[in-house]
Design brief:
single chain, 2 domains, 366 residues, alpha+beta, six-stranded antiparallel β-barrel, Elongation Factor Tu (Ef-tu), domain 3
Amino acid sequence: MKYTIGEEEVDFLKRLSEAFGPPGFEDEVMSLVKEYATPFADEIRTDNLGSLILMKRGESDFPKVVVAGHADEVGFIVSGVTNEGYVKFIPLGGWWDQVLLAQRVMIRTRKGYVHGVIESKPPHLLKEEEKGKVVKQENMFIDVGATSKDEVEKLGIRIGDPIVPWSPFMRSSAGKTVFGKAFDDRIGVFMAVEALRVLSEHDIQHPNTFMAVITVQEEVGLRGAQTSAYATEPDVAIIAEVDIAGDVPGISPYEAPTKLGKGPSIVTYDASMIPNQRLKNFIMDVAEEAKIPYQLSIVPRGGTDAGRFHLYRTGRPSVVIGVPTRNIHSHVSVLHLDDLENGVRLLAEVVKRLDKEKVKSFSPLT
């Protein structure tokens, strides 16, 4: 099966990356996905938490195959405003304090977007014992250019307003890599939707009902995965995600084995799920048969939406297919377009082979 990421696909990835969507505020992402995917889906619906379900009927109602990516990105929420006009905030999702200072952000208010920059006590005023310490998030604030609390309130900023990094998407000078925010997990969204598009536009027969599921609130506890599992009742769940690229200084292959440009990863273990072994082996066989490069990965201190999908009702065969990505949970991440391209190819090849007998073979003791 042929699939190539061209300018149209890169533009879709750009719009996904730059869209505003921290946990609980994913509506802009969902509107973008719905508009893009409507021509390829037989049915579009949502669950009551806001996850989006894009269905394509195949040759059979069984099995139901879900490919899920989460729409939300790590962000923040306004917790207060000081008398001097600085915005205080708390995190939505996991942040390492060291990546925050001097970074630009956008606050979404009822009046529109307000830009700001994360600041703290100036380094020139720090005592010697303070200079060697990491500044904690609770000691930071957002400067929106105001000089009083009244000015901030006139901008429309209120407690509870969401905040995300401001970080334009761009290609690197190297050509095949791109920079952007929210790759965790807009690339999973991209993969799920592009797999749907490939099946539709190439009229690929698949012996199942396929659902691209765009979940919400993954970064704050896999919440959308729990509700969308009930909404879709999957027989197989494949989670499309980022993977932690280990090809940076200071990381051993035993900590993070995947590298950019070497293919998508099949996650053999993470802290939220041990994959169904027969499903994992099946995907490896498909990759080798279709001559798609892949890497095996392990993520000992992270989890994904698979942590909820695999526990649906009596349990469901689940696995994670990832794209190695550098510098996640920050303002700028890096990925290789070849890995993303091969990830979409692998998903489509897997879906078109998942028939009733194959899915039954994933069950224990068969």
